[in-house]
């Protein structure tokens, strides 16, 4: 089972591809997509879309999992994370992939065992599960890998929050 | 000059194509794209994207104008309007089109002459400018046509709010 995890954003978007075989997990690919604030929105969302297409075409994930946060203080931020999600959905639809969403507490529950764990504990677990020598960086990529592993965790329990 | 006006939304998306030649304005096309709440998000955003592509391919607008609202009470609503905007940006990028955004007050200023005009006055002006026998319906389509005319108004004054 190969999952593409995504920490969605318009300026920084973390992508992480993880493969599970049996109980083993392996990091296949990690990438940070950055777009310039000074570029027009169609170009920025277009770049995100192209990166998604390239990663999906190369690693052929069987599902996409994204981090969803609804406690954004600013509506404008929610709106712009939505732009990036539009690109995720169109790429997913193009490849016939289902998209799953998990909030930060679900990630902490899955990887650390309780919903109020520290971010450092999540990063430590991602590193341990994937057998990495160092914590994955930058944080958006670490978040993307955590989301992919979170989806595999809930999937293994017959669940998963499809959006 | 042909402009595609859009009232963005994930459940209801209004599209209106308007042509200006000299001082005359003509309605070329109007469409309401509805998606089902019960369908997965990739399918819904995919349907919006396909409708945008079809309308752009048929009417070849030279610009896209969208209604932008930042006073959403709910972050989740802003987020989902963002999903639809992602589709707009990807379609725009595909066709090399610029996207312009205007808030409700800018629409009222452009079409009625003052920013606190009633919605009915905006609808009346859309009908008058386009020479329609009735007010355009439903409201999402009327809003899309108003946005297209708003863009032409600001463009004629050398402006336009590119996003
Ligand atoms: Mg992050």
Task: Characterise this structure.
2 copies of one chain form a homodimer. Chain A has 163 residues and is of the alpha/beta class. Chain A has one domain (2-156): Ribonuclease H-like superfamily/Ribonuclease H (Nucleotidyltransferase, domain 5). Chain A is built from 5 helices and 5 strands, in the order βββαβαβααα. The first copy, chain A, has helices spanning 41-59, 75-95, 104-111, 119-130, 139-156; strands spanning 2-7, 12-21, 24-34, 63-67, 98-102. In chain A, strands 3-2-1-4-5 form a 5-stranded mixed sheet. In chain A, β1 and β2 form a beta hairpin. Chain A starts with a strand and ends in a 7-residue tail after the last helix. At the A-B interface, α1 and α2 of A face α1 and α2 of B. Bound molecules: magnesium ion. Magnesium ion binds at residues 7, 139-140, 143 of chain A. Chains A, B: Belongs to the RuvC family. Chains A, B: It is an enzyme of class 3 (hydrolase).
Which chain pair has the greatest contact? A-B, 34 and 34 residues
- Arrangement of strands in the largest sheet of chain A: 3-2-1-4-5
Derived structural class of chain A: alpha/beta
CATH topology of chain A: Nucleotidyltransferase, domain 5
Topology:
The structure is a homodimer of 163-residue chains.
Chain A: E1 2-7, E2 12-21, E3 24-34, H1 41-59, E4 63-67, H2 75-95, E5 98-102, H3 104-111, H4 119-130, H5 139-156
Parallel strand pairs in A: 1-4, 4-5
Antiparallel strand pairs in A: 1-2, 2-3
Bound molecules: magnesium ion (MG).
């Amino acid at each position: 089972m190969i999952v593409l995890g995504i920490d969605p954003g318009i300026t920084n978007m973390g992508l992480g591809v993880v493969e599970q075989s049996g109980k083993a997990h392996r990091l296949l690919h990690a990438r940070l997509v950055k777009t310039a604030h000074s570029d027009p929105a169609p170009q920025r969302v277009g770049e995100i879309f192209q990166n998604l297409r390239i990663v999906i075409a190369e690693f052929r994930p069987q599902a996409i999992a994204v981090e969803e946060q609804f406690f954004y203080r600013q509506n404008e931020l929610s709106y712009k994370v939505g732009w990036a999600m539009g690109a995720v959905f169109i790429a997913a639809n193009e490849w016939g992939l289902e998209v799953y969403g998990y909030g930060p507490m679900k990630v902490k529950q899955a990887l650390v065992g309780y919903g109020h764990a520290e971010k450092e504990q999540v990063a430590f677990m991602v590193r341990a599960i994937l057998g990495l020598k160092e914590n994955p960086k930058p944080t958006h990529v670490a978040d993307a890998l955590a989301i992919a592993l979170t989806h595999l965790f809930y999937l293994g329990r017959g669940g998963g929050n499809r959006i």
